[in-house]
Amino acid sequence: MTDVTGRSSLFRAALTRADSPALGTWVKIPAMEIMELVALAGFDFAVIDLEHSPISLESAYRLIGTALNTGVSPLVRVPTLDAGMMQRVLDAGAEGIMVPHVDTAEQARAAVSTMRFPPLGVRGVGSTSRAGAWGGRTREEYLRYGQHEVVLIAQIESAVGVRNAGAIAKTEGVDALFVGAADLSVSEGRVESDPAIIELIASTVGQSRAAGVPVGNAGGSGVDSVRAAVQAGFTFTMLSNDATLFGAAARAAVEAARTVTYG
Predict the structure, then answer these.
(1) Who's near 120: CB < 8 A, 6+ residues apart?
(2) 3-class secondary-structure state, position 204
(3) Active site (annotated) includes residue 52
(4) Phi, then psi, of 144 in degrees rounded to 5
């Protein structure tokens, strides 16, 4: 046996840092090199986005493995509450799953049931997968890690979700909330800077923190975005995404190069 008893989630470890929020980014490009670069940049976690990207399950599997081997926590946003996909993502070694559009405690309980082992849920045992070190970990450690270290993040993206955020956060098996400000604002026919949307976001943060549950958001790549997230009470935040970060860096390089002329 190559069992590692008591191993802990990299994402949970990042959340315990007292001086600054945990930092992550979205991964939308299906290339292992992208995850290597994310790790080299120093991100705490990366969310492999299966909702808004062409990434396949096989590509996600490879990205998860690369993340684990380079020291960045691999989380996966699934497109829907799909038990089969969630099972396979977890067996692939994901440290957590983000479920979009969670509006009620009942939906949160359904997500918990899908990804937790009995008696809390109905996840099947697959300890010969990467999550179980291909059978190299004891059954007990495989179950413990899946039940107590793997995180479930419920994404709040509507006014209904905001009203129920406290109950969702208190649902046993839910580890964090995540505010999807873009969908929240569009669902209300407003922009993210609208005072009404800011109030809804603040309500979600307040309910989450009152329940003792971490809460995160997504923003830009600049320090002002992170500072605003901290001031708003978020405990983890996401800096842009791989494609946008590359595009911005490439654009800046070309714009700078265009200032050089023959004269």
Answers:
(1) 112, 113, 147, 172, 173
(2) helix
(3) yes
(4) -60, -45
- For domain 10-257, give the fold: TIM Barrel (3.20.20)
Q: State how far the Cα of 168 lies from the Cα of 175, in Å rounded to an integer.
A: 10
Q: Say which of 52, 139, 148, 251 is annotated catalytic.
A: 52
Alpha-carbon distance of 110 to 255, in angstroms, equals 49
**Stated pTM of the model:** 0.95
As a whole number of angstroms, the longest Cα–Cα distance in the chain is: 74
Over residues 58-115, the pLDDT tens digits come to 999 999 999 999 999 999 999 999 999 999 999 999 999 999 999 999 999 999 999 9
120-169: per-residue pLDDT in tens?
999 999 999 999 999 999 999 999 999 999 999 999 999 999 999 999 99
Burial class (CB in 10 A: 0-12, 13-18, 19+), 88: middle
